[in-house]
Design brief:
The protein is about 80% helix and about 0% strand. It is mainly alpha-helical. Helix 3 (about 30-45) runs parallel beside helix 5 and helix 8 packs antiparallel against helix 9 (about 150-165). The longest helix has 18 residues, at about 10-25.
Length: about 200
């Protein structure tokens, strides 16, 4: 499920969730049912069914944590945070991201650290806190580089480039994004690389 979410393949994610629900129900795995509810709720919010999707997403996340699981909790909190952002609940989104970052520091589950910092930066940028956003994007870029997490690195560089574009610094924006984009040799049809290419074309 996480790979389909990363790829942004909504159709495949929905199909996978349906299969997961069927298996979880048949085998009696509440843990899997909770994960399926999280992803289905996220997909619903993303596709415009915000109220019902948020309800399903929250209940799935609560059910997952009620079993005592800690693995992937920051990821699921990030999905709730993203859904809150879509529904206009920015303050709650920031709180969830801060909590998720705290869990990462406590547990050492750092695979999502770069993306959480980037997401927090984007929310702060939307509120006009440009210096704080820039610091978080640079932090995300550094973490992604250390982890060789190229997708997170691309997203962080793209967010940083957008910030610099808003500040009328296109050269600096290009300097950060162009080398990261150039490091890819495949996957150019994916949304992340298409967005990066469009931004580079806009920057000239």
């Amino acid at each position: 499920m996480r790979l389909l979410w990363l790829a942004g393949d909504d159709a495949a994610l929905d199909e996978g969730v349906t299969e997961l629900i069927a298996v979880a129900t048949e085998q009696g795995f509440p843990h899997w049912r909770a994960q399926a509810a999280i992803y289905r709720g996220w997909a619903m919010v993303k596709n415009g069914d915000v109220a019902e999707g948020m309800s399903l997403l929250r209940s799935g996340a609560a059910a997952y944590r009620s079993g005592g699981a800690e693995l992937f909790v920051p990821h699921y909190m990030a999905l709730v945070a993203a859904a809150c952002e879509i529904s206009g609940q920015v303050e709650e989104s920031l709180t969830l991201l801060n909590d998720a970052l705290g869990i990462i520091e406590r547990t050492g589950e750092r695979w999502l650290a770069a993306e959480l910092n980037r997401h927090k930066g984007r929310l702060l940028q939307g509120r006009g806190y440009y210096d704080a956003a820039e610091s978080l994007y640079l932090k995300a870029l550094g973490i992604a580089g250390e982890q060789a997490a190229r997708l997170w690195e691309l997203r962080a560089a793209r967010s940083l480039a957008r910030l610099y574009r808003e500040q009328h610094r296109p050269d600096k924006a290009r300097d950060f994004l162009a080398p990261v984009y150039a490091s890819f040799t495949e996957g150019f049809h994916t949304p992340d690389l298409e967005e990066a290419k469009a931004l580079l074309d806009e920057l000239g």
